[in-house]
Each structure stands twice: as structure tokens, then as C-alpha cells.
Design goal:
Length: 374
Amino acid sequence: MCYTESMKKKLRGQDEKSFREKYAQLRSRQARFHAELKKAAAERRELLRQSGAKAKAGAKKLGKKIAFSLKYTYALGGRLRNEIVGMLTVYNLGAAVFVRKKRHVRFDENDRRLYLNIYRPLRAAKTGKEKVFVYIHGGGWMGGWPESREAFTTRIAAAGYFVASIYYGEAPRYAHPKMIRNIYTALGWLREHAQQLNIDMSSVFVGGESAGAHLAAMAGCIATDPEYAARFDLDERAKEQKIAGLVLNCGVYDLEEVLRSGFKRADIYTQAYCGGTPLKELSEEKKREVSPIYWLTENFPPTFAISAENDKLALLTFDLVDRLRALNVPVTHFHGEGRFAVHAFAVTMALKESRRAMRQIRAFLSDLSGRKKS
């Protein structure tokens, strides 16, 4: 790849230490899966030497585990490549300059792997507390970092918001429902430190792309449907957290529809999210639980929903918008068009269509903030 001098400057400006740490973490995780795969294969060979139905059943189970591990490792390699290339090239191009950043703030004393990054305007509001925008990154539930979404999050911060971008863990280590619990632990930490941070946690905005939009939509359902909220053991500090509005970028709202969409590696992404169990093997009740589209009510937060012309998951956003309109929930639908309108395109400000989406997102947030003040 040939880099211009301008791009070289941007690369040198990357947080090298953070990048190297994450690179090492991902390589370590991949090595761990290879070791587990090798161990499982040895156990399967031993079981096959034994006789009886029980041994055969055990061998079959291990066979499935090995198949999942092989697919997962392959998919993880793809995610690693996409995240690193994206982070070094387009993901953070166009990030806002006049923003204060504080990275790797630990929000869970029981898990040092989890953290959030804070972005806020260089000039804080002279009066009142800052409005909060919580961002949940995507990555097929298997990867992604707050640091590789800074073109988006800093632009929101520059518009006058306190942005908390959450690293909530990856599947299958943090399989459902651990991810949403981690997000609510982060919300609890923010609420506990609201006075110190001078932020308004009475009602927050939440956004995310792809898998992050799925988790953001889950939070929207938890905040507005008591029956759904009761299914989760959430942080006591944040169980009643109100959500003022959602920004959902090319999200996943029905996991069964994801499998039917033809989206690349959808089977392994959803299986990892479900802890290694294929979606088709879940109970009907559990299938509904992992798909927020089944839990929408007329109280669902006002939503800015983004879809893309060249995204196989676009239909899921159209389904969501259609259902929200039927419920009379305020919803703004932005459909990206053109050759670069691909899955989750709006995370990067390098594209004209992404910048157009950002202008409308900021107008959406401003409108909601204005309504609240009036």
C-alpha cells in the first residue's frame, strides 16, 4: 500500500502503545483458541477409541466444538485484519481535533479487561452539566475497539456532548448476556461519577454500529419494557437508566434474519455471541431474547436508524423502521447510497455519505436535547 505524506503523519499520530497492546491481546486470544482446539482434538481421538453410545455422543459433541473453533479462528483472523487496517487507514480519518480524550478508564473493579474512553468538547459548557452520548462499537461481537471509532465519537463530542465509548468484551468469552451486563456496569460507573465528571445522567443518548447497534437496541428495550428488563441481572446503579434517543448504524435486530441475509460469516458471529451454541439450537424463548425487534413498544426511545445500499443487513434496519413507525415511535431513517455505502459506513468520516449522515445525526441529537429543555 502506498501512503501519502499526509497519511504517514496520521499513522505516526496513532496511539502506538494502545495499538500494540491490542495487537498483542488479539494474537494471545488467537493462540489460546489454537491451544484449546488442539486439546479438544486429542480428547476426541481418545473418545473415539472407546466404545458405546455415550462415547460416540461425546465424540460428536467434541466434533462440533472443533468445527466451531476452526471457523471462529478463521473469522477472528478476518476481524483482526479489518480492525487493524481500518484503524491505520480510514476509521479515524476526519476525527475532530478540538476534543479532549481520556482512554482506558476502568469501570469494573472485578474485570480489568473492560474499559471506556472519554471524549468531550475542548471547551466545556460554562453552565449546566454536559449531555451524555454512550457509544457501543461493533465488530461481530468478536472484536472492535473504542480507539478505532474515534472519527465518529470525536465528531459527536465536538458537537457539545460528553461521549463514553465502551469496550464491553468479545464473544464467546463474554457471550450473551454478559455484554449487555458489562454495558450497564459502565452506565453504573458513569452514574456513580456523574458529579465528579459534571455530566447529566438523568437521560442519555446511546449509539452503536453493527453488533454495537444490536446491543444499543437491547438497551433501548431494557429501558422501555419492564418484562424484557426483568430477564437481565443488571448493575443496580443503572437498572433504571433512561435513554433519550438511539443512533443505530447498520444494526442487527433479529438474529435469525441475519442468518438468512447472506451476510458473510453470519453463522459464526451469531454462534459466538450465543456462547458457541448455534442459533438454531436455542429455544424459541432464547431466540426471542437475543433479538430486540421482538421487544419494541410504543415507549421505545426516538431513533435515528442508518442502513446502506450495499449492505446485506440493510433489510433488518428497514424491518426495524417499519415496526417503529407502526408503533408511532419517532424514527428518522437515513439510507446511505452510492458505491461506498457499505455495512457500517457511517463510522468513518472519510466518506462524503458518512459526513452527510453525521450532520443529520447531530441535528437529531440537537432536536431531542432542545425538546427536553423546552
